[in-house]
Design the sequence.
């Protein structure tokens, strides 16, 4: 069974967790994927290993780790891969794949242009 785990940085602001939770709820409503969860790199729970465990405990044998990060950097290039390696050791029969940061997606420029051109987006 496939699962998606949306990974975000984490923040002390409760608004951040609410926004991530809302994003995941929307993905659950609009996706055919059986399991969609979220986790945070730091400062918030669940942690990435806890998020992977949540997916596996629901029957996932294929976890897509969706990086809700705009760009590469130390967290994306070093920290998260290390965490994923440890989780692969804990769950050796579970396939785990990591996406590129969302900022590297081919559609990001179009998204930014849509925001720029939508005057209602500005405060």
Sequence:
């Amino acid at each position: 069974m496939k699962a998606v785990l949306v990974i975000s940085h984490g923040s002390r602001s409760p608004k951040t967790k609410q926004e991530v939770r809302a994003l995941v709820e929307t993905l659950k409503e609009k996706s055919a994927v059986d399991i969609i969860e979220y986790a945070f790199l730091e400062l918030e729970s669940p942690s990435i290993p806890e998020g992977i465990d949540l997916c596996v405990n629901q029957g996932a044998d294929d976890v897509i780790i969706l990086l809700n990060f705009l760009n590469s950097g130390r967290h994306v290039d070093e920290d998260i891969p290390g965490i994923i390696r440890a989780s692969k050791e804990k769950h050796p029969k579970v396939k785990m794949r990591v996406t590129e940061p969302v900022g590297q997606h081919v559609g990001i420029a179009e998204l930014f242009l849509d925001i720029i051109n939508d005057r209602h987006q500005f405060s």
Remarks:
- The CA atoms of residues 8 and 40 lie 5 Å apart.
- Residues 14-30 form the longest helix (17 residues).
- The chain has a mean pLDDT of 94.
- Residues 2-121 form a domain with the Rossmann fold fold (CATH 3.40.50.1400).
